Amino acid sequence: MQLLLFSASTRTGSYNTKLIELTSKLMKTQADDIVLDVADFKEFDMPLYDADLNATSGLPKNALHFIERLQKADGLVISSPEYNFSIPGTLKNLIDWVSRQKPMPWKAKPILLMSAAMSVVGGNRGLWATRIPLEACGSYVFSDMFSLALAQEAFIENGELKDSGLQDRLNKNLADFIHYVRRLT
Ligand SMILES: Cc1cc2nc3c(=O)[nH]c(=O)nc-3n(C[C@H](O)[C@H](O)[C@H](O)COP(=O)(O)O)c2cc1C
Prior knowledge:
Bound molecules: flavin mononucleotide
Helix content: 40-55%
Number of helices: 6
Strand content: 15-25%
CATH architecture: 3-Layer(aba) Sandwich
Distance between the termini: 9 Å
CATH superfamily: Flavodoxin domain
């Protein structure tokens, strides 16, 4: 099974990137047959969606590059910041460009959504907004989502979570998602 993982933040020291790093570490302990493709969101830098550009030049090269990685993946894990209670424009822009390819690259892709934020709700409102375009594009967004609250205090030096009970919950969420992907593929 191959999974594409990325944090939808380009910030140095990003909490969402830390959560993806921890996810990658935990997933490796869950099964031997899992291949992880951990992407840097900067690899998918692209212009704002522009229908005229789309009509004249097709998709930007980094959108095509993302689609290649997406097509190889049996499932995705995305950890995204919450911006103004919603999905960051950068992630929405990526979803929109990719959705212009035929056949629809997002269709039937299992996706686990996660977030990390400094607030007590951990960016969870942004994930509800993120489900909408992904589900509109036909992705199978997993019902359980993981939101890390007070992310600035949540990690210890080795990149694990200070709260071991919360890390157990994350581990269970990942195991359940892997099971879901196996059942779909
Ligand atoms: C434009 C903008 C809007 C933000 N809106 C929210 C918000 O609605 N809720 C929240 O918890 N944090 C919000 N934040 C703070 C981010 O959660 C914080 O910057 C977090 O560290 C971003 O994730 P990262 O560490 O992975 O980059 C916002 C930050 C920016 C730049």
